[in-house]
Amino acid sequence: MRSFIAINLPAQVQSDIGAIIARLRPAGPPAKWVPAENLHLTLKFLDEIREDQIDPILKAMASGCEGGSPFEIALRGFGVFPNARKARVFWIGIDSGYETLKALAQSIDTQIATLGFPREDRPFSAHITLARLREPAPAEHLMHDAVSVDYHSASIPVAQVDLMRSVLSSQGALYSVIASVPLK
Asked: Engineering a disulfide at 145: which of 3, 27, 171, 177 sits with its beta carbon 3.0 to 4.6 angstroms away?
């Protein structure tokens, strides 16, 4: 099963960002926009895993979360990867809690690597993907309109990390929580 480790967003935050997506969508180049209910912050993409790997992954996640206590994040600011001239991903950024997120993601990555999953070779860049552009394209209009959106989320509590299942369908990806690991 296709899986990843994430922090899920509260329904109200998903709804707020969904409204922003509806407002910005016309300004963007052709893209696959993320449905509001799928908005999350990925800490580690695992790709395909087997059923018998779930328990070891959860133990590794728990080890990666050791020493971490619940914390808060806030969202603010929009951007694109890799750049505005050849954008592939449109995202919303982290305004506060970034260093804690980074440390958590690195700790989980280290523990998951002991199970044979490759370590991340790119630096961690905490963000929430809003759209994936169909082809690299200029995103100046999208970024211009995004600058006019003054969105700053309230503090979002982070008390657990979720192991997620992703099922690809003709309607898009369907996400579900396999299991959660609390931050203590």
From this structure: 27
